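request received
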Amino acid sequence: MAVIRRLPKYYRYLSDLSDAGVTRISSKELAMKMGLTASQIRQDLNCFGGFGQQGYGYDVANLYSAIGEILGVDNSYPAVLVGCGNLGKAIALFVQSSQSPFKMIAGFDVASDLVGTSLNSIPILHSSEIGSFCCKNEIKAAFLCLPTESTKLVVAQLYEKGVRYFCNFTHYNINIKYKDAVVENVHITDSLLTLCYSMNAKNCEENEA
Amino acid sequence: MAVIRRLPKYYRYLSDLSDAGVTRISSKELAMKMGLTASQIRQDLNCFGGFGQQGYGYDVANLYSAIGEILGVDNSYPAVLVGCGNLGKAIALFVQSSQSPFKMIAGFDVASDLVGTSLNSIPILHSSEIGSFCCKNEIKAAFLCLPTESTKLVVAQLYEKGVRYFCNFTHYNINIKYKDAVVENVHITDSLLTLCYSMNAKNCEENEA
DNA sequence: TAGATTGTTAATCGATTAACAATC
DNA sequence: TAGATTGTTAATCGATTAACAATC
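response:
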């Protein structure tokens, strides 16, 4: 649902507003800040209940905590990182630093110079231990930052042990085989090529003129 | 347009098929592999011309190179990286390694222990030089991997020197102020919270039962 | 009371799916 | 010719926008 994908954005903007000391905001103002329409914001927020007040607007602190609760930001789901290269490292630090709803409790890799070391206090184990580790620790979520070629096998192991939530930076399409897996794909290559398309289209325009 | 966002995906899958030695494919088969409908694929591809052949399907090599041309993958746009921390580093290597349409020619940072070093042969300069560097090298595209707080100022400098294409990993909303900037936002925090929402929603379901 | 702004319904728009004639 | 599969049109679905009555 498109609304749900916008909730984290609302949450971010409300956090900023709150930090800036703003206590109330109208859908119109928020729309301008976010680049949406006021109508859409009212429609979106009403999916989850009447948070606003006619003639007044929305109470920033109220709305912020309400959306936080809908998203479940106060959770601390234990998660694992598979692939501890540059991207994996960045993601791990990312997950640890911001008040994230995930707690990275282990990293996995096959590189012998990484196994046994740690990533900002997260231990890096050998990938052969993924299955037993996830089983023992009742892991539900995994971050996949490994090469696409190795992903199929890793996902099979994770799924078998009950992992159903994936933040997937690889190009392996998890949902084809595992219909009930919940997957957030982050395909940086696709963003790159989309940007490239725009530059290319612009070029063509200019050449025509 | 939704179709354009799918082009990079088609391109990826066709590349894989080509590597696997597949020479032709029907919309039906491709749909299954990609998790789309055959109808959608035919509709999408027809936006750019009749690449298929009735009764036969699509020629993989043909379609691959046609989409590559539409995307403009053979370009090599010079680009800069702003923010050379863990994420920036991962992105830089990313852009360099895969046959990417961008060529990262410089990185910028304010950290004195980074300035003067290099990132896989890309020189890291001090952020104060961004403007003059981009001007001199006619840079059109920038990758933003710096803290959100510093981004406003950096974008102002880049925009002033003619940069109009941004791959933005920060939470600064470029298009609010710069309407004609073309921006690909990659908001990992949002993906994280969306995933969290799903886990949370599942939990609630279970508690109700 | 008057002004502001929401909640909510209706209208519009765009994207996806279904169907089928065209054609290889 | 018969079978397969596209190109393309029409139908459906969902999401966005506009409008306005309700109400603080």
